[in-house]
Amino acid sequence: MTRDKTSRSVAFALLVGVTLAVFWQPLSTLIRFSFEQEHYSHIILVPLISACIFLLERRSIFSHVETRRWAGSGLLVLGVLVYWFGQRYAAVSTENDHLAIAIFAVVVIWLGAFVLFYGLRALRAGLFSALFPFLMVPIPDVALNQAILWLQAGSADVSYAVFELLGVPVLRSGFTFSLPGLTIEVARECSGIRSSLALLIMSLLASHLFLRSAWTKAALVLATIPLLIVKNGVRIVTLSLLSIYVDPGFLTGNLHHSGGIVFFLLALLILAPVLHLLQRSERTVGPAYVSSDLPE
Prior knowledge:
This protein is mainly alpha-helical. The protein has 2 domains: 2-137, no CATH class; 143-284, no CATH class. It has helices at 2-22, 24-36, 46-56, 58-61, 69-88, 95-118, 120-125, 127-131, 141-165, 193-210, 214-245, 254-258, 260-292, and strands spanning 171-173, 176-179, 182-185. Strands 1-2-3 form a 3-stranded antiparallel sheet, covered by helices on one side. A hairpin with a 2-residue loop joins strand 1 (171-173) and strand 2. Helix 5 (69-88) runs antiparallel to helix 6. 28% of the residues are buried.
């Protein structure tokens, strides 16, 4: 049995290695994107995180392996067709959208290889880590622009509400705020898309590692969504007030350009009690659920 699993792992690794060679051009472009574009800085970590989860859960994932030729081959063919479609229509798509199609196809091929050599039961046992690599896929331009606009508008609304709550004189015109001695604009660069994506990924990981039921996992991720806007609005207000009442240099200093990590950590601190409450709710509901299945 051990020899069988070893041969399967070798075959799987060889097939993945072949895909790395065949699709090296889009994969190398993806690596370049992850270093050049801040909203894709998380991509380089996605395969590493997925591999770590596989290692942590390898006993349950590989407790029952089987060959699934039809299902695995079907996914392999689907990935190739998706890649072919992206190449065929590359001329009418942006570089980002073209890359999104290519990387989506590569991940589908990897998924097909996994099903081919390990089977559907192994896929179900390791579903989270098997699907996690899809976070490597660049967000299509239409969806990315909408997400940035939503974060931009939400951050502006939260900032305006906080200014009014604190009694700071403010005049708003769209995304522009006129404050005492200062005028700021909540631009696309102020949307906080980078930290928002990182926070969403962290909530996905936390829900998988620390929660058991589907509803508590969904609740944690849903609780993260408004937090994306709140933490960015707080950042805008904090920088503005520091610039007005302490030093105008705060708007151009390190806290403005590199201080996102501070507010990201603040968001995690806010999310921690939510996670704790959801864990407690599972402990409370769990025994009652189990006892309901016992014979009377």
